[in-house]
Target: Co-chaperonin GroES
Amino acid sequence: MALKPLHDRVLVRRTESEEKTAGGLIIPDSAKEKPSEGVVVACGEGARKDSGELIAMAVKEGDNILFGKWSGTEVTVDGEELLMMKESDIMGVIV
Model:
């Protein structure tokens, strides 16, 4: 199943978090937090003004992004857990 976001929504794949600390300690799965970084998998066309004019998206497929801890809604596409969120939930693009 393919999923294309509508309007100003973005489909994001979380990046894997580190399994070791800087000191070399291994972090068990039960203690890991979900990462707040990800890669944009798909984008909608953008939001529309009241006049109908299209507001272009600031992110594109393949961008590495930073988002809020509680942002988005988890969706499963082809057995893979992804996040669907509004573009406004994205805090920035990692360059």
